[in-house]
Amino acid sequence: MILVTGANGTIGSHVVPRLLARGERVRALVRDAARAAKLGPDVEIVVGDLTRPETLDRAFARVDRVFLATTGSDLPQQEANAIAAAERAGVGHVVKLSVMMPEGTPRIGSASWHEASERTLRASRLAWTMLRGGNFASNALAFADPTSPLASVFALAGDGGLAHVDPRDIADVAVLALTSGSAHHGRVYDLTGATPLSYREVVRILASITGKPIVLRERPPAEIRAELLAGGFPADLANAFVGAMSAVREGVWDHVSPDVERLLGRPPRAFEEWARDHAHFFA
User: What pTM was estimated for this model as a whole?
Assistant: First the structure.
């Protein structure tokens, strides 16, 4: 039995059908059972919350592998709760979705949260695999809503490049790691696209493919941070977004990894492919 956390999320929603297609038994840990109905009748749904340890033992019972994906500034505690539950249940292997941490780059926002969580997992009795995802191509969906504050955040990156990775590629690697026995135990993989693109280039590609005018709203960091706070973003998350994109502007996140191609035997999906497949969101 494989437990998928974040099964309704960007990566988990791709992991679940891929596991089912391979004949695996899948259980999804979700907060909202109604929303999880889209996962289909072959998925066992368990309602629980990684912030509430008392809800987790039922989800982890009789599970031998776990895909661990969470988000937010309380991620280290959420994942510590999951790791403890996995140890109590005798889970054999945890595949953790993490973020890229190129040598010498600042540990800002989510990188610092994931670094702390990786330490907890390494110190546990569990076998593990770390999937350090680069910037998701799907983050470009922010440009489908001209009023999205995240679109302003991404504008802070300027001409800084990111090797945007298709979430489907991360899901393919996750399924490989979960279904290959011990072959990927103790491994750390950086998962990126093949070519760094700035968000200015991303916007040009989206406009060309969708036929919609898409414009970066470039403004000072302090103004964008204030907009995020006014929109209800917690201060730690607003600071993380602004800090990360400001670092991208300086060119410190343009790392390209060969791991997707090495593991899957094919090149990473290009951003243009993601854009064509999701152009309907911009209609």
Answer: 0.93
